[in-house]
Amino acid sequence: MYGPPVSIALVLDVDGVVCPTSGLSPFGEVVEVGVALRPVQVPPLLCAALADLAALPDVAPAWLTSWLPQTRRAMRPPFPGPEWEQIELEPGEGWPKWSALNAWLARNPEITRLAWIDDDLAGRAPVHAEELGRRGLDALLLAPTTDYGMTPSDISRLKHWLTGHP
Q: Which long-range contacts (CB under 8 A, 24 or more apart) does 150-153 make?
């Protein structure tokens, strides 16, 4: 982490979260922001909401994705977070993102709250949330539907969890 210690991590995947795989979003319009194997389309309203939440005090945004940092940085606005930290995937037992998150959390013991949004959490969220809770972390895990990515309801839930306000 860079800068002063923070206590809340906002960890995001890209495909199926910020970039709906269908090209359709409950936020309405999607715009092309670059190419990563295929054109990358994002909903500007979702990107703005994520940027606002990432800018909250005590929140450290980070990417946990197979996208390389230079691929993310090559995206045009409104793609959020070109400067956000990248949690590097690390080999380990089981799911590589889980191993990477655990290693990252071990290096950042100041994190006491974790919001993790990844479409790959579908079916995995309850087990991982329980494990994080056993370690004393207050965790919110969201698994958006890959076709449509995050929804306005997801953003409302995330905002309420981060701030205590709807």
A: 150/17, 150/18, 150/46, 150/50, 150/117, 151/26, 151/27, 152/26, 152/27
